[in-house]
Amino acid sequence: MLRLWSAIPCLLLASAAAAASASSQSFENSAIVRTIDLGGSLVHVTTTFAVKALKEAAGVYTITLPEDEIFNTSWLEVKVKGKQQPLTVTYSGAPAGSKSHNLDVSLEKPLEAGATINLVLETVQTHTTRPWPQQAAQDEDQSLKYETSLFVLSPYNTSVQRTKLKSSSPRIIFYTEPENVQAFTLENPVTKSGSTVTYGPYSNVPPSANQAFLDKYQQRVVLHYSYDYPVLEVLKLRRAAEISHWGANLNIQDDIVLHNAGPRLNGHFSRLQHQTQSFYGRGAPHVLPLFTVQLPPGIRNTYYLDQIGNVSTSHLRVAPSVSRGLKNAQNSVLELKPRYPIMGGWNYTYTLGWDAPLGDSGSYDPNTGKYIVSIPVMTEIPGAVVNDAEISIILPEGATDVDYVAPFPALSNEISTHVTYLDTIGRPMVIFKYKNLTNKHAKPIYVSYRVPISAHLRKPMAVATVLLVLFTFAMVARRVDLTIYKTPTKKM
Questions:
Q1: CB atoms < 10 A from the CB of 360, how many?
Q2: pTM of the predicted model, to two decimals?
Q3: Which of 19, 201, 215, 265 is surrounded by the fewest CB atoms within 10 Å?
């Protein structure tokens, strides 16, 4: 994930600066269109670059992102418009003297001089919005602020660029009027239409990935908008996935600390007022009375607990089970209603778990003699970011030759041992740790391993040994006489 880049030193040598200068002459941007879909905890940004090659065999295009944006980006992907396969992106450092960072995009094949291509950069930003005002009464509306840069940075000349900020509500309270942009437009530099605020078009923008342009023209713009949904964060996620061959079962349990990151409740909570608002369908947007999550098909033995005990205010609709590899359009749907409505600034700790047939997510490869099981990284809570996640995959006892493939790099991973009932040597456990997961990260981890025949027999042999020891102890104990005084028997 991109937050790992904070550990990479951004020191450029003179040769690297010369290479960047040569690269800036390889392309030009016919147009750049950035679309920002404003949300709560997550902000989705799509930037389209209409690129024209100026030299022969131009195969690496450079994208520049501001420092604050790149460190708030948890997911990034670049594709050719109209294609599904993402392109290879590598971090190439920071321009000398600039608080920005370069990403090199390797094209599928080098472009000839004059050839054009449309590249689409998709990112998901986390923790970039904030509630304003920071407190709200139980019956008041909710509004958020979002801040970004006016210009899309690029080391190439840009013929025209614009930025569109889209809100889910047309109730936009305030937006910044840019200054000192007369060199790029003679029209109104910003316009509003419904729920969309557009900055630009700005024409004939020179290469902007340098400190001179940043000091003279770059500026921050702020949008203050109404938001009609709770702003959710998962402060902590602890997922344990336990694989059992004896029961052909996959058990998944999530321990979650959910946080409402909206404006803090101003005053005391009134249950009567909440019930009245719910009855008339006028609940405050910053209050979370319930939420829905999608679970795998074919699950069973679902349980939903909090710190007090079982929570019965939930409803589960189970989709039929399907074998691994077959596409299924339906998921099981679980409606969770917490024991109390979650107000702004409040936390809610709960446990959610279920069993699923192992055959739905696992298979056996006879060529390699290994089992392959897919474990989802997370269960998406709509609109929520997972600040801290730890995923533990517990394999059967005796599993060897453990290997795994993660959909994206983890902050750390390790293999340890987990011991539970009827175990003799313990079970291998693979642990992954992540930060700032989004809906784009809800992908499976693939784990492969071998289980020899002796490992399958270890548990029944352990049970048989324990029973034999108990019976032997009972037999010996019945024959041991520990009486201190024996009553003499009378002779007839």
A1: 19
A2: 0.85
A3: 215
